[in-house]
Amino acid sequence: MARRNVLAGMVLLAIGLGYGVLTAGLPDRSLPGTPGPAFFPWLITAGWLALSTALLVRGLLGGGKNSTDVIEHRIPAQGWPALVGFAAYLLLLPTLGFIVASILFFASLTWLYGERNKLRIVLPAIIIPIVLFYLFTAGFQVLLPRGPWW
Predict the structure, then answer these.
(1) Which of 101, 116, 123, 125 could be a cystine partner for 92, CB 3.0 to 4.6 Å?
(2) Residues 14 and 41 in one domain
(3) What domain count does the chain have?
(4) Which range marks the domain in which residue 112 is found?
């Protein structure tokens, strides 16, 4: 039994249950067939609880490393530039809009984490934000920041 995983699983389950209880009182939309304000918090809660349960079960079954197996832990060097990039993304989002800011953000993260093939950087960086934009605006009717061009 990996005690770290069991402890982390129990703590994360408690936090997830608490989050679920706090979001239980959100109102539903009166329009049929549309996700209401409670949809995304419940989606987050379900994913959180599923992953926390998996971590707890893995710890109880003995999967993972014991704390004596871990030699050293270092923060990856890309962490700080990624955090600065995310802050820049949040600052550029209102002025450039979701699609343009996300294209720049995805392309820079892909390059930061080691991809040097231009096609593998540019193609997903363009396709993913466009798909997400239309999924949220048309599918979920969630307004995302629009750029000055559209």
Answers:
(1) 101
(2) yes
(3) 2
(4) 79-139
